[in-house]
Design a protein that fits this description.
It catalyses: (S)-dihydroorotate + a quinone = orotate + a quinol. The active site is at 179 (nucleophile). Its main location: membrane. Catalyzes the conversion of dihydroorotate to orotate with quinone as electron acceptor. This protein has 338 residues and is of the alpha/beta class. The protein has one domain (2-337): TIM Barrel (Alpha-Beta Barrel). Helices cover 39% and strands 16% of the residues. The protein is built from 12 helices and 13 strands. It has an 8-stranded parallel barrel, surrounded by 5 helices. Strands 5-6-11 form a 3-stranded antiparallel beta sheet, with no helix packed on it. The protein has a two-stranded antiparallel ribbon with strand order 1-2. Helix 6 packs parallel to helix 7, helix 7 runs parallel beside helix 8 and helix 10 (300-309) crosses helix 12. The longest helix is centred in the N-terminal third of the chain and has 16 residues, at 15-30.
Length: 338
């Protein structure tokens, strides 16, 4: 029904407007008595064979919602009703910021892709914390970044602020230095600044009563040499793992008219590169750390491909938009048959 009726209507309108409208609809219907239970009955597969223990956490199933969809932790409970095993919120920054000027979100329908140049638009970490305080049983990842106005030399302080604020309310952290939509952010992926940033967060983490997993989200556009640096950094800093990958600045092979819009591209054209990065990291590290696979998952076969390449978990974003909520159940059913 989603692909035949709902998606064609949604795709007639501005993507960002539809995103906000969808949030309003999902929030409204979940307030109707019995609807949350009905959605779980339709979409959720409750099977112990799907459970995964990764970086010390137990996931009900290995399919999660990627960061960027529920930036401000507004609907993490509602989205969990569609069968996700975990929800990643953010990217959050210390101070609220509006992001880049609109229009900043574009569908590349012929390519089954999306280009965004949102620019870490969010209400700030404290606003998200206020919502997370009511969480009871949704496994939450906190994706953190820096404010646009913060120079790179001061970026560590922004990540520290977000880490401290979110620590009591998330199950794991994701350090985002790979978005192409915040000026100079990707420079923080260089070996020296990235090592310093991760070491600082690990030191904060180790002072806590219980350390929480810290993951690094990387760009798909890194060279093999840079990926080898990532392997070395992850092992040296002893962070918990890697999320591969963020959006790409590549436009190779695209056919949509608006393919040259500036920003990061997600969706089906990213599938092959994302999987290649996962396989490279898994092989070169000899499986030394877990990898969360994201990028171009539009079918159960795409998810299985990433798991076979070395991912322990997978996340959806663009595939969720194009394929609808049924894709989560389809992936989990395929994993059970595997």
């Amino acid at each position: 029904m989603y692909k035949l009726l709902i998606r064609p209507i949604f795709f007639l309108f501005d993507p960002e407007a539809v995103h906000h409208f969808t949030f309003s609809v999902v929030k409204f219907i979940n307030r109707i008595p019995g609807v949350s239970a009905l959605l779980r009955a339709i979409y959720l597969i409750d099977d112990k064979r799907l459970e995964r223990e990764v970086f010390g956490l137990k996931f009900k199933n290995p399919v999660g919602l990627a960061a960027g969809f529920d930036k401000d932790a507004k609907l993490y409970k509602e989205f969990s009703n569609f069968g996700f095993g975990f929800i990643e919120i953010g990217t959050l920054t210390p101070k609220p910021q509006p992001g880049n000027p609109k229009k900043r979100l574009f569908r590349l329908i012929s390519d089954k892709a999306i280009v965004n140049r949102m620019g870490f638009n969010n209400g700030g970490v404290e606003e998200a914390v206020a919502r997370l305080k009511s969480n009871k049983n949704v496994l939450i990842g906190g994706n953190i970044g820096k404010n646009k106005v913060t120079p790179n030399e001061d970026a560590v302080e922004d990540y520290k602020i977000c880490f401290e604020a979110l620590y009591p309310y998330v199950d794991y952290f994701v350090v985002n230095v790979s978005s192409p939509n915040t000026p100079n952010l990707r420079a923080l992926q260089d070996k020296e600044p990235l090592t310093a940033l991760l070491n600082t967060l690990q030191q904060l983490n180790e002072k806590k009563e219980k350390a929480k997993p810290i993951l690094l989200k990387i760009a798909p556009d890194l060279t093999d040499s840079q990926l080898l640096d990532i392997v070395d950094i992850v092992i040296t800093t002893k962070i918990a793992g890697v999320i591969a990958t963020n959006t790409t600045i590549s436009r190779k092979g695209l056919i949509s008219e608006n393919k040259n819009e500036m920003g990061g591209m997600s969706g089906m054209p990213l599938r092959e590169r994302s999987t290649a990065v996962i396989k490279f990291l898994a092989e070169k590290s000899n499986g030394a750390f877990p990898i969360v696979g994201v990028g171009g998952i539009h079918s159960p076969e795409d998810a299985i491909e990433k798991l076979n390449a070395g991912a322990s978990l997978v996340q959806l974003y663009t595939g969720f938009i194009y394929e609808g909520p049924a894709i989560i159940k389809k992936i989990n059913k395929a994993i059970l048959k595997k």
